Amino acid sequence: MMTESRLKKRSLIFAGGGTGGHLLPGIAVAEQLASMDDFSITFIGSNRPVEQQIIERSGYQHLGLASSPSNELKSAPWSFFWNNGRACLQARRILRAERPAAVIGLGGFASVPLIMAASWLNIPIVLLEQNIIPGRANRFLFSRANVICTSFAETRLPKPHSGRPLIAFTGNPVREQMTHLETTPKSEPSEILLLVLGGSQGARAVNQAVLSLLEQGRDALPRRLHVVHQTGETDWKYAVQEYQKLQKHDSELRVTVEPFINDLAEWYSKADLVISRAGATTLAELACTGCPTVLIPYPNSIGDHQLINAQFYEAEGAAVLVEQMADAEVTAHNLQTAVVELLHDSTKRNSLSEVMQKLALPEASRKVADEIMALIAH
């Protein structure tokens, strides 16, 4: 599995993923650790294509285990226990062979087999919790961790038992290009750039609301408009077709549509306004880049964590919150009201940007790396 040259180095394993929201903080920490020591770093998670693509682009080795998410416990219990039992055994074999200095859990169902196996083998464990409301995996694994690094001071974790785990408020790690962002001139300076993000897996409701906004509310929007839209893989072809229809009747509408945007830093630096889900990693990037933002939290997130994340940013005056309603037309109408107001009010956008930047924690990657280094030094 690991080459001989890799085995000579101290090894660290990052466990979990499934989505960019879990993986990107891990990559940021891995890059920080690589600058501090000569580690062999491997990411082990699920077999989801988006996970493989994100890790491979980062240049790290990726291994996938055939684990099952918790929502399959009711729908396919035999498959759930079989897959996760097998994944735990496979994880234990990997850890016995590799003997990493630590395992860093990134959250999500794919982190569970590795963290369980690390606990059985007494390998130091660090968990990263991105949200105010912890996810199922981290709640389940809480007592097995040595250290939990939180993104919010307000993160709602149980009380540690006998001093374990240590809870460290570090902030949510973001990649270095986000913390040293320089404003990139637009190719068309008079053009308004609207950046739309539905998360690494896309968001059907957000995609439809934005398309409805452009179809029904176009007259109220600035004429020279460039929409950069990350749709997710599922909606990409549909969105491309809908944008082509809009452009037939609107020569001043420019569109860039991608299933997944690799270099978000470039678009953050140019964006006049962002429409986004309220995942914690995206919020951390938005804070570091100071983008004025309209947040549409995913309504079915575990423990309503996206809504709670968004309410925190709204209460601070850093973002505008538009809740996704059961009636798609109501969501589209509320989004149109917020977007039109902000695109015609640069003072309000500047205010949101200033407050957003005050919430940034650009040293989060280093702080998490310091916690890991302190743990493995013992």
From TrEMBL:
InterPro entries: GlcNAc_MurG (IPR006009), Glyco_trans_28_C (IPR007235), GlycoTrans_28_N (IPR004276). It is an enzyme of class 2 (transferase). It is found in: Cell membrane. The keyword Protease does not apply. It is a peripheral membrane protein. Residues 13-147 form the Glycosyltransferase family 28 N-terminal domain. Gene3D superfamilies: Glycogen Phosphorylase B. Its EC number is 2.4.1.227. GO terms for cellular component: plasma membrane. UDP-N-acetyl-alpha-D-glucosamine binds at T19, G20, G21, N131, R175, S200, I261, Q306. It catalyses: di-trans,octa-cis-undecaprenyl diphospho-N-acetyl-alpha-D-muramoyl-L-alanyl-D-glutamyl-meso-2,6-diaminopimeloyl-D-alanyl-D-alanine + UDP-N-acetyl-alpha-D-glucosamine = di-trans,octa-cis-undecaprenyl diphospho-[N-acetyl-alpha-D-glucosaminyl-(1->4)]-N-acetyl-alpha-D-muramoyl-L-alanyl-D-glutamyl-meso-2,6-diaminopimeloyl-D-alanyl-D-alanine + UDP + H(+). Keywords: Cell cycle, Cell division, Cell membrane, Cell shape, Cell wall biogenesis/degradation, Glycosyltransferase, Membrane, Peptidoglycan synthesis, Transferase, Transmembrane, Transmembrane helix. The chain crosses the membrane at residues 101-121. Pathway: Cell wall biogenesis; peptidoglycan biosynthesis. It holds the Pfam family Glyco_transf_28. Residues 194-355 form the Glycosyl transferase family 28 C-terminal domain. Its main location: membrane. One of its GO terms (biological process) is cell division. It comes from the Bacteria. GO terms for molecular function: UDP-N-acetyl-D-glucosamine:N-acetylmuramoyl-L-alanyl-D-glutamyl-meso-2,6-diaminopimelyl-D-alanyl-D-alanine-diphosphoundecaprenol 4-beta-N-acetylglucosaminlytransferase activity; undecaprenyldiphospho-muramoylpentapeptide beta-N-acetylglucosaminyltransferase activity. Cell wall formation. Catalyzes the transfer of a GlcNAc subunit on undecaprenyl-pyrophosphoryl-MurNAc-pentapeptide (lipid intermediate I) to form undecaprenyl-pyrophosphoryl-MurNAc-(pentapeptide)GlcNAc (lipid intermediate II). Belongs to the glycosyltransferase 28 family. MurG subfamily. This is UDP-N-acetylglucosamine--N-acetylmuramyl-(pentapeptide) pyrophosphoryl-undecaprenol N-acetylglucosamine transferase. It comes from Gimesia chilikensis. The lineage of its organism: Bacteria, Pseudomonadati, Planctomycetota, Planctomycetia, Planctomycetales.
